[in-house]
Amino acid sequence: MSKNKFPPKKRPAVDPDNGPVYLYGLHTVRAALDNPQRKKRVLLATPNALNRLGESGPIPDLPIHEKTPRELDALLGADAVHQGVALEVDPVDRPRLQDVEKLDLVIALDQVTDPHNVGAILRTACAFGADAVITTARYAPRETGVLAKSASGALDLIPLVEVRNLGETLETLKKNGLLCLGFDSEAEGLLRPRPSGQKLAIVLGAEGKGLRQKTRSLCDEMVRLDMPGPIKSLNVSNAAAIALFAATAGRS
Hints:
Layout: E1 21-24, H1 26-34, E2 40-45, H2 47-56, E3 64-66, H3 69-76, E4 85-89, E5 105-110, H4 115-127, E6 132-136, H5 145-151, E7 160-163, H6 166-175, E8 179-183, E9 189-190, E10 200-205, H7 213-218, E11 221-224, H8 236-248
Helix pairs in contact: 4-5, 4-8
């Protein structure tokens, strides 16, 4: 008799790193369906989920395959909270920085690779009205269902800009009048509310490593969150939410 009481979880039929891109969850799929720039291939859904999608907006003309929850579990993995719906898509084209119409408030990520964190940051950035989230080309997660689900639709609502050189990008942002505000738990300065109208780039590094030295040197200010409790650092997506709140608190 096996000592392991719980059978091993079955791996998803789709390789999330190299296979086709499946977006899942009602909010995520709805945002993708409404995005005219998104190439949509096949919609997989239970009858109930298809009805709920139809209630939230029109469903474009594309192949629809009826599936059971168990079939979606087998395709996406048991941990995927798909809510009965998945959409096969092509990855959305990443815009260039110069293609973003307005750059008043952006988040720049220095080698943040966890798709849950990047997705959560996209969701928060979208909620606070940021104009773009910037990642590096080499050290950033590819578009996957995990990233899109964590973003809860924001992947199709806010530009996710991919750049080759973050240092050059920060220089470009500064030339366009943005103040580059870097975050480090050991910084001397404290995060404070920013005046209305100030253009701002919030620069965040990966957990553990933080910002690289070159990135730090290019920031106009280095600040930390004022945390009087025994824990002095936060998950990067939580830090982004607090930074965005402080940056936008004085705005009308």
